[in-house]
Amino acid sequence: MRFDTKLVHVGQEPPAGTGDLVPPLHLASTYERDVQDPVRWFYARGENPTREDLERVLAALEDVRFATAFASGQAAGATALAVLARRLVIVSDDVYGGTHALMGTVADRGVEVRYADLADPGVADRVLAAAPPGALVWVETPTNPLLKVVDVARVARQAHEAGAVVLVDNTVAGPALQRPLALGADVSLYSTTKSVAGHLDVLGGALVHDREDLHEAFTAHRTAVGSVPGPFDCFLVHRGLKTLSLRAERQVATTGKLVAELCASPAVAEVRYPGLPGHPGHEVAARQMSGGGSLVSFRYRGDVGAFLRRLRLFGNAVSLGGVRSLASRPATTTHRPVPPDLRARLGITEDLVRMSIGIEDPEDLLDDLRNALGGGAAWRS
Ligand SMILES: *Cc1c(COP(=O)(O)O)cnc(C)c1O
Questions:
Q1: Kind and range of the H or E run holding 285
Q2: Which of the four pLDDT bands, split at 50, 70 and 90, describes residue 193?
Q3: How many CB atoms lie within 10 A of CB 251?
Q4: In what order do the strands lie in the sheet with 66-70?
Q5: In the predicted structure, residue 32 carries a pLDDT above the cut 50
Q6: Three-state helix/strand/coil letters over 316-345
Q7: Which helix (H) or strand (E) holds 354?
Q8: Residue partners of 373: CB distance under 8 A and separation at least 6
């Protein structure tokens, strides 16, 4: 079965007895032990059929056996760190703001956290060659919000030589455009809140991989701390997932048009998008992603606040990968948790705008963007 077919078939097989063609919503928190297999179905923090339907399709999308669903992307990250972060975590320097907060929790328990520009092959080579066995390498690609591209196959090869484990936060690209496990990573992390669910109406997360030992450790940790997603949330993520490929296709095509508009505008100083041939990571992106994605960042020459307020269709809001287009200023929103010196060094400055492109009519989005860019006083005078 190919990817697009899995989206609407795996985890959605009609159950015997009723033949539901949509995965049933199982709300029970506990199970009658004489009727059910008492080991298989015990208590909903550990087992839930609606959740397992979702997990089956998430695993199938990366052609592996295991997926563990969580209440949020952060909950998935917390479990990954609890299980995998022992002495050292090497992290992409430009990552989701919340990831910095998560790393703070492991630093508090004595694990060393080392940020490195893994998008720079020279830096990645040096850092990974020195990685001790058992280190965790936490990659985000494309990075958020600067959209740097990390060569996953290369990083995985070097990390494995050193005996390290590689996790890729694949939230920004999503499984339709990039499959880290096929590139050699050990674990894919998703905030399913974003493109997987896609409708801006649910929080969720997942760890996807093919290792039995990790499956046991991840589910045991999730059961212990109780960071499970509710059945209705699983249902919503699963429902949203069915249109993932259709949404991604439209979003990537529209993003290309908006990027061309941004590149041509005198109000814009710099455009960062992996799909642009001039982007430093373009060659790697073209190899490991199918499409440049639906996220673009740029530096605006005028008043960013005024620009955001002039947009009518783009919501002035954080989050990404959803059906509605959104725009935000990372320095004052998503990346506020990043230490100010690191933020400045990376270039997450106040003029940086991040846009997540939705599924609206591309011409309407272009009109909205042109109108908002046209009001930039900095270049009009
Ligand atoms: C949103 C996001 C997360 C966190 O996910 P939540 O579902 O909000 O907890 C992690 N990584 C990336 C790249 C994200 O965009």
A1: helix 282-288
A2: very high
A3: 29
A4: 66-70, 205-209, 187-191, 165-169, 136-140, 88-92, 112-116
A5: yes
A6: ECCCCCCCCCEEECHHHCCCCCCCHHHHHH
A7: strand 352-356
A8: 261, 262, 265, 267, 268, 307
CATH of domain 3-241: 3.40.640.10
Q: For all residues of the chain together, what is the average pLDDT?
A: 95
Average pLDDT over residues 183-189: 98
Share of the chain above pLDDT 90, in %: 90
Tell me the CA–centroid distance for residue 74 and ligand 1, in Å: 6
* Ligand 1 pocket residue status of 195, Cβ below 6 Å: no
Q: Given pLDDT bands bounded at 50, 70 and 90, which one contains residue 361?
A: very high
pLDDT tens across 104-139, in order? 999 999 999 999 999 999 999 999 999 999 999 999
DSSP string computed for 47-100: --HHHHHHHHHHHHHTT-SEEEEESSHHHHHHHHHHHH-SSEEEEESS--HHHH
72 lines ligand 1 (CB under 6 A): yes
In the prediction, which pLDDT does 30 show?
93
Which pLDDT does position 36 carry in this prediction? 67
Ligand 1 nearest atom to the CA of residue 76, by list position: 9
Give φ, ψ of 90 to 5 degrees: -100, 120
Q: What atom of ligand 1 comes closest to residue 172's alpha carbon? A: 13
Q: Which fold has domain 245-373?
A: Aspartate Aminotransferase, domain 1 (3.90.1150)
What CA–CA distance (Å, rounded) separates 89 from 85?
Answer: 6
Ligand 1 atom showing the smallest separation from residue 203 Cα: 7
User: Do 245-373 and 3-241 have the same topology in CATH?
Assistant: no
Query: Tokens 């697009």 appear where?
Result: 4
139 touches ligand 1 (CB under 6 Å):
no
Would the CB of 170 count as within 6 Å of ligand 1? no
The residue to mutate among 92, 95, 96, having the most atoms of ligand 1 within 8 angstroms of its beta carbon, is: 96
> Domains of the chain: which residue ranges?
3-241, 245-373
